[in-house]
Each structure stands twice: as structure tokens, then as C-alpha cells.
Amino acid sequence: MATHFSSLDWAIVCVYVLATMLTGLYGRKFVGGISDFLVAGRELGLYIGIATLAATEIGTITFMYYAELGYKTGYAAFINGLIAGVVMIAIGRTGFIVRRLRAMRLMTVPEFFEVKFSRRLRVFTGILVAIGGILNMGVFLRVEGTFLAIISGISLSHIKAVMTAILLLELVYTVLGGMISIVITDFIQFIALSVGTILVTIWSLRAAGITHMFDAVKNTMGIAGFSPLKNPEYGWAYIIFQVLVWMAVHTCWQTTAMRTFSTKSPEISKKVFSWAGFIFLGRGMMPMMWGIAALALLGSGQNSLEAMPRMLATVLPSGVLGLVVAGMLAATMSVNSSYLLGWSSILAQDIILPLRRRPMSSRQQVMLNRVANLFVSIFVMVWGLWYTLPGPTYFYLNMTASIYLSGTLVTVIAGLYWKRASILGGYLAMAGGAVATIAFFFFKVPASYAGLGAFLLAGIGMLAGSLWRKNNSDAPTISPESVPAR
Amino acid sequence: MNAWYFFWMANFVIAGSAFAVIAIVVAIRGVKDLREMFANLRAESKRK
Question: Is the whole model's pTM more than 0.90, yes or no?
Fold first, then answer.
């Protein structure tokens, strides 16, 4: 398919990538110890907090899977964006979970499990978090590469080399500057991706036409393209599952939680969530609109994942295309660097460190995290090259996340708000959530039922385990309020 | 069908406008936040 991607666009993209790289390297000089490396010294203010949270959770992969949902399920897909945004605003307004987690001055989510329950439960959770998180990230390169290949006209074999090079660039500044470099680059990337998102939305609406888009959805899907209750992909079970998933993602997803832990105070973390929730509404609905525009312009016979970039390659003029691709690369780099740091920190801090008999100094921990960064990068490169998605990307990402998110959400809520919550309850919750999720991959259970089942089993596990066996008298009983926030 | 359509379009307009406004505010005021972060990190580093 023809694309307007020209040498001007390549120049814009190259300048942008180089500038990001240099800015990222600047953060290196501020890394003094492990809290600087993982949570930026807990120095994030409101605006930079919003920028880094939004940039971390808005990637090319986000645009791709939401556009795919828009293309396949029409306006009914908007329910996903609405839930993600409203749940985040509600968490911000109430401070539910995030205020208490921030007050505890943690660096990773599984660390909470040691503070509240036991070191072994921390390691068990760390293993599930690492498996779920790294598998989740594993498909990023493939999906992002597909976008870049279609929009720029480069062959898929060359794109593999380009994506590998981009991952290596991200790796350099992430390994050297950790969270500080990521926060600085996230700020630039947030601006670039916002410009790209708004430009693409305007161009898509102009090219397809609002009336034509409405007709395309109506003629292709009928009422199922508008009502999430009538669409076979959604329904009440799915909606409840999504509310739980997003509650878990906004509070316990390691990359999001690292932003909570990095803010200056619990109050700032609440404000960040309140405002970022509005960004999350747009993060979902705008790319879904691109997918609907692709349906209107290209028809329903396209590969659902590739329809949106194919549409963009034809409607965006040269120059704008470069700005948009720079914006998408910005989104890609901010997500990948944060995810690299997030999952490698789990490997280092929650699996390797607790299993060592001798403690490590802050400097040694930074080095260990850097090695873990390298390991995760290599895995992501290999997995991204050979794994084939079993269904829509969005559902794969939901399910890999649910491997640990369902159990973690239940255990964190119980640990924070229920005095009776016990170690056995924690184990059963984590195991129950993981088992139901694995059923999705092996027994082809529909995503919404498997996901809902994961949360249900986790809840039952926590309840049964805690009522059956209380904690030993020497189990930690640290109250979140007793730990001063910095 | 029309009710759902208008509901989603209203959501879309609110979401898109909020996205644009917050992006502009963050782009302007985030610079100050970044400067403060650098200053605090430098001070902390000297203190150590």
C-alpha cells in the first residue's frame, strides 16, 4: 500500500530519537542510590507526575489495540476507555489504595507483601508478577513494528532491525539513569505523543467524515456497534471484569505503582490520578475513533490490527506523517523504557534480593537492576519475534496482566483494609488468580469469564485462607499510617 | 442506537477536549516541576 513517508519524515524522526537519547543520558548524573534509580528520589510533583504516568501508559501498542477494538466493535468499544478513565478518577478522588501504598514508601508492589505478610509471599508474588509482566511486554515490539512497517513502507524484515535498535537505545538510558532518565524523557515524550494523538484524531475525522463513520458502523455491525450490552465481545460480565482490571492496573500494575511511589507525597499521588484519569478517557476513545475511521475508509475486510496504520499511511501528508511517527515512537520509547525498569526491578528487588542471604548495598542493588534490565530486553526481543497472538491484542494483554493482577489487587486491598488478612489467604489469592487466567490460554475460555473468574477465585482464596488460618504472632503488623511519608 | 451514539460522541468530545487542555497545562507547568526535581536531587546528593 502507498505511503507518503518521505526523507523529510525520516529527518524528523531521527532528530527526535537523537534528542530523546541525549536527554535521557542527562539523568544519569542524578542517580545516587537505589531510591533515585527506581523511584526518582520520590521527587515527582503534580505536573511531571501526570506526564510520566500518561507517557508510560500510552504507547504505540495502546493506539494499536484500541484502534483494533474500534475497527472490530465500533462505538461500543468506547466502554473500555470510559471504564479506564472513570475508575482512575475515582481512585484519585478517594485515594483508595494509592494513598496508603504511597505512605508506606515502597519501591515495588511485591515489597508490600513482605511488609504486611511474609518474605516468601513477596518472592512468590514477585515470580507471578515477573511472568505476567514480561509476557505482557513480550508482544510490544511485534505490534509496534507492524505499525511502523505499514506507515513507513519499510519491509517487516528491516523493521525487526529498527525495533531492535530502538529497544537498545531505550536500554542505554534506562540502564544508566533509571527512573530519573525515564521521567525526563517521559516529559518530552508526553508532549510529542499528545501532539501526534491530536493530529491523527483531527486528520482521521476529516478524512472519514463523522456521518460516514456512523453509517459504516451501523451497516457493518448494527446495534452491536453502539451498545456494549448487545455486542457479543462485551456484556455485563465483561464490564464488571474491566472495572476490576482497571482498579488493579491503576493501583497494582508495577509501572503505574512506581509513579505512585515516586510522587512527593500521598496527596500529590491522589491529584496525579484525578487529572490523569481524564487523559485516560482520551487515551482510549481517540484511537478507537481512528479504528472506526479506518472501517469507514477501507471497509471491513482488512486485518483488524493493521487497518488503522494502513488508513494513516494514506490519509496523512508528508511532514505530518513524520510528526505523527515521531509521536508514536515517543509513545513507544516511554512505554518500553518504563516497562523495562518496572519488570526488571521485580526480578532484582523481589526475587533475587530476598533470596540472597547477605544484603546488598544501595550501589550493588543499582547494578543488579541494570543486569536485570538487560535480561528483560533480551527476552522481549526473542519473544516478540516468534510468538503469535491467540486473539485480539487487547484481550491478550488483559489476560497476561490478570496472571498476577487479580490476586495482587485482592491481597493488597485485604492487607490494607482488613486486619484478619493472613499469609495463607495471600498465597491462595495469588494462586487462584493465576490458575483462572491460565485457563484462558489452555482451555480457550472467553476472556471476560476467565478474567472475572480470576478475581472471584482470588477473593475466595483470600477469604477462605484468612478465616482458616491466622498469621503467626511474629508476622509483621506494620500499619501504613505508622510509616512517615517523605 | 441513536441514544448510544450521542452518548459516546459526548464522551468523545469531553475526553478529547480534556486531553488537549491537560496536555497544554502539563507541558507548561511540568518544566517547573522538572527544575524542582533536579534541585532537590542535587541538594540530596550534596547532603549525602
Answer: no
